[in-house]
Amino acid sequence: MKILIIEDEQELANDMVKYLTNEQYLCECASDFHAAMEKVYGHDYDCILLDLMLPGGDGLTILEELKRLKKQDGVIIISAKNAIDDKVKGLKLGADDYLAKPFHQAELAARVESLIRRKQFDSNNLIVQNELSIDINAKAVTVNDQPLNLTKKEYNLLLFFIGNKNRVLSKGALAEHLSGDFADMFESHDFVYAHVKNLKRKLKEKDYGDYLKTIYGTGYKWER
Amino acid sequence: MSRLLNRPLKAFALYALIILVISIPVYVLVIDYIWTSELDENNWLTLQHTKQRLQSKQFTQAEIENINHIWGELQPGVSIIKVDRKISFKDSIYEAIRPNEFDEDDGEDRFRGLKTFVELNGEPYILTIETNVEESDETFAAVAGITLLFFIILFIGFILLNRRIATKTWQPFYATLRSLQSFELSKDSSVHLPSSDIQEFQELNQSLLHLIKSNVNDYQQQKSFTENASHELQTPIALLKSKMDLLIQQKDISPEISELLNSIEAPLSRLSRINKNLLLLVKVENYQYSDQEQLDVKEHLDSTISLFEDYLNEKQLQLSNQVKEAIVVNANSFLVETLIQNLLSNSIRHTSKGGQIAISSNGKSLIVMNTGKESLDQSRLFERFSNTTKGKVSSGLGLAIIREIANKYGWQVGYSFENGFHIFTVEF
Which residue numbers of A have CB closer than 8 Å to B's CBs? Predict the structure, then answer.
């Protein structure tokens, strides 16, 4: 699966490549408007991460061009502007998602995963992880064909973990995923423990393997 | 507080009154002096004339007595009376207050008389003549009355002149004042002050324009500094966050390092929040977020409460939301959401574990109360980085943002402390 990262801040682009690249994803970078346009014209990507402020042009123009060419590439806008206008404009122009800088790589990975999944499975959106299967459309989880009752937050956490397999997720990233942008308004994110603990307990009750590991001091990791 | 032009008006009126009051006795004395000296002269002339005629006619003593009788009957106060001894005295003037049958008011009149010595047929006689003089108190009353009348005319004149001066001469001053009153440093980049042909006003306007210009420049510079600084900080913060995410992926992290990494997260997220808030403040100040819509504050409130549920539970806070009816406002949806989130997160952060938060409304306002120990410093509470409380994660900008958003829409934000509750109110 191919991902195009259009980002003028080289360091940040490298970090994204490092974090996202795995056996599933292949990442390419474009650091200015023209390089990005060339790549967009020449190739198809499963997901394009688009920074709006680019040397040489406006990221929204690239988005318009994609739509004009009737390309199916999924687009996630990542903007430092954090302007609500950009968000609205971008989504109106056909972007699939919007992520404001600064963001956790884990959040980006989860968004990319979710976008690609949406693009791939139109009707039957099912994630299967060993004995676990998640029906995204019905928001139903089963373990060994037994239904697993999760709260909305536990369900969100589960998807977040699966979107970040084999990666350590910090408490902050989890809190931000659950509460959104304002998680940093609060000093303590201890509630994350409670939700993860409940999720672990429920999975264990259904005899699901101990894939969700606690990493001492830093956070959690879904090992597969 | 009195108006500028009323000050000299009062002074002028008072001065005029004092001068006019002093002038009353002066006038009375002068008039009285003129009166009496004229009358004395008149009496003397009449007397001389009478004396001469009497001496030239050679009247007998009986005739003289007859004359005295008839004369006295016709004109009271006039007499020619024989004296026994020949006494020589100078003409003497006297004054007498006597009843006057023709005076209908008080029956008493002032008379001015002149006595002289005359020799008729070798016999000495005293000739007396009297003329009625206006009494001093009557003169006084008349003068006082006229003076008062003139004072009133003068005073009315002052008021009318004052008004004329105010509207004409001071008009540029008042125009300048109005311009300054409507001037807002955060909104206007310049101010128009009317030109005037009066030197002082012109100088005043020029000084003001100079002052305003340099202030506006300073303000703009400060604002663009904040804006630029927070824009420049965005990338390093984003990089730090992203490097942290990569760093924790490293295998075999020792507990010490893991502890350190963990403790970097809190200051980093605070840094990120401060920067976000600074950018937001600049944007609100710069009149971005201009699109408005009719929206219900209650909806935003309900969704914010459910979003903050975890934080409420974590601190075991009791929240009672008594907002039952819609609070419809015309504003930007994002800003209303931001306002409510800041208001609520502020309460959650500053309520100690197990405390209470109560939210209520009276149709046009939102009241958020939370338990607290003591009143906060109201004067600086809504200032940026006022640090009234030593919150660990507080960006120091939450309340400043609330005030800035409220200012944008002309809403009133208030704080009070009653019965152990911090009470924040937003009047929409």
Answer: 9, 11-12, 15-16, 18-19, 80, 82-85, 101-106, 153, 167-168, 170-173, 178-188, 190-191, 195, 215-219
